[in-house]
Write the structure tokens for this entry.
Amino acid sequence: MEIRPILSALLRNKTGPILVALQVALSLGILANALHIVEERRAVAARPSGLLDEASTFYFQVRNLNTDGPEQMLATIRRETEVLRAVPGVASVAQVSQMPLSRSGSNNSVAVDQGQERETAVASQYVSGDSLIKTFGLKLVEGRDFLPGEIVEVNENEQRELPKQVIVTKALAEKMWPGASTAIGKQVWFGTGDGALSSQVVGVVERLQSAHGEMGERAEFATIVPARVYGRPGNMYAIRTEPGQRDRVIKEAEEALRKSSATPVIMQAKTVEEDRKNRYRADLALSWMLITVSVLLLLVTSSGIVGMASLWVTQRRKQIGVRRALGARKLDILRYFILENFMITSAGVFGGVLFGLSLNHLLVTKLEMARLPVHYLVGGAVVFWALGILAAYGPAWRAASISPATATRSA
């Protein structure tokens, strides 16, 4: 067996093997966690928003430059909604308070009981006087959509009550009533204490992301309230078009709104695709940065193994020549150096697994990240074992090719 003489040789020259093993350990621990973060960020960026067709959905932010009273503002909302519905290629229109992934919107504390000291969850609140289930194309998994008589008209500047009905997302329902067979008919309290207001759940949608696209389950905590709010200086309209018609509809809808208004109008159109790209730009940039760091770590580690193996070959030319003179084959020399590097790499892999788990524990406790799956460490170990063998193969082959006469003459 060659393991004992290899160990003996390594113990006589500890510095080089220790440095290589430490480099492998650090690289493995960082690489496993970096790739885990990359996968997690990319999965978050690809999460469905709940909308039926993001590519066909956009929204207008419209501001009318007039000083009319609240009642006129309500009439303006109705007129603008009808104008947008009349544009060819429009499938559905809804006045809405906020849009998924737009990073601009309101949240509300929700509770299952008025007497709670702390809320059960914080949820995005979508307010609309039209059917968001139809316009967004949301999938209804329980209950029903709002009835026309349940939609209330609310003056933003006056004291008001919440509508008595609400639609919640499946994620929010499971958070508020875990294990319940249904959420239909249950009361949702907005806020806590004496000032809390309640609404009854009439429907549950499969998913609807919040305006801010938070991490984890909170991203799909959302409520839909049936109210047409007026009195604001501007309004927002969500529009879903027929497939492939979005860009044309944006131009024609803007022109139609301007023509229908007797006063100047300020408009801004944004697509859901633009909001998704802007929301996750930083996450994707972080992913590419971590991928670059991982590649550099692999290159540096392999360079270190190659450099150290080449140094060992140079230092052991006499030993190699003597072994060849005593009958050692090229295969024996090649196997010796590859086994030696495999043992050093294995020590680094063991240390890297411990370091990777420790680093992940720190990320979980400080940054609320998910725990590192075992397959990242297993895959990383296999990669570094293979890297160690491949990086050592060249120097090992050169060592095996040294003739006894050359080695003893140069010693």
About this structure: The longest strand covers residues 197-205. The CA atoms of residues 175 and 269 lie 35 Å apart. DSSP finds twelve helices and twelve strands in the chain. The two ends are 27 Å apart (CA to CA).
